[in-house]
Amino acid sequence: MLEIIKQYHQEIKDIHLQNIDELEHYRVKYLSKKGIISGLFEKFRAASAEEKRSIGKPLNELKKEAEEIHLHFKEIFDAQKNIDFKTFNDLSLPGEGFETGARHPISLVRKQIIDIFHGLGFVIAEGPEIEDDWHNFSALNFPEEHPARDMQDTFFIEKKNGKDDIALRTHTSSVQVRLMQNGKPPFRAIMPGRVYRNETISARAHCFFHQVEGMYVDKQVSFADLKQTLYFFVQEMFGADTKVRFRASYFPFTEPSAEMDISCTICKGKGCNLCKNSGWVEILGCGMIDPNVLKNCGIDSETYTGFAFGMGIERITNLKYQIKDLRLFSENDIRFLKQFNHEIV
Length: 345
Ligand code: DAH
Known about the structure:
By secondary structure, the chain is of the alpha+beta class. It folds into 2 domains: about 1-90; about 105-340, 2-Layer Sandwich (BirA Bifunctional Protein, domain 2). The chain has helices at about 1-15, 20-30, 35-45, 50-80, 85-90, 105-120, 135, 150, 175-180, 225-240, 290-295, 315-320, 330, 335, and strands at about 125, 130, 155-160, 165-170, 185-195, 210-220, 245-250, 255-265, 280-290, 305-310. Strand 7 (about 245-250) and strand 8 (about 255-265) form a beta hairpin. Helix 2 (about 20-30) packs antiparallel against helix 4 and helix 3 packs antiparallel against helix 4 (about 50-80). It is elongated. 3,4-dihydroxyphenylalanine binds near residues 171, 173, 213 and 310.
């Protein structure tokens, strides 16, 4: 009897059923009450105890396999039931093309910025979007209860006791702190990421946006290095005829601090709506890293100096592609996004 079981096993093993009729035929032949497998079980019951011991397992396996094969083909034929084969088989019908996706303009510009700095030897670093007060403010020299903390309307997640408050980061400068804490100078890194501020959403402001932070810490890094690096960036990003100017400014984490303007990309400095007739548009904040920040992060501020800068990716994108409403970036309107299909990165 073991031989017979083996034979049937062999018979069904590679069976290929073509349609529902063949499936039904298969079921009746092997799995129905009067089918082969039931017949074998009847014989099994009549067999001697010794024979039972040797055929019990193979017989159960045969049954299991026969049932699995039935289920496998049943699922295939059930799925096919829902397909209209007449339509399907008409090869003269026009095909339906796939809509291809495109990169988001923010991703495009982020990549362009990264590539430019990568060429100068900057590495990419990232940090968490949920940050504690220390990394976002204290380590960056924002004194406790200092009004500068109100400059950036923060989304708090947990209010503890000031130092341990947890918030959505308001800028990517927090990544500078994490990098310096966890490594040794020299540092030459750019840090792209999303940041959050509690702002009313309008064409000119949003509650989340993107920044790229840059930092260079080494022996003898000077303001001249900062200027030259950013000048190179502007030429690469906006073209060789773009002019640059620095205005003195204030940030708690840099001393001296500056804001950098470029000649208006639309009117080329003649004066238009975008630049409010000044011929200049601001694109980033920068400065020499305050020695207090270096100390807070465990860097020897006698030996090392550094510069830092931070820019909004949306702002750069607006200037590059003349997008006037910030909300377009997060609405996912396909008519807006499609316009960037042709941009190659
Ligand atoms: N963190 C500042 C902001 O969000 C931008 C900034 C200014 C970053 C000066 C810097 C810097 O690294 O040196 O407005």
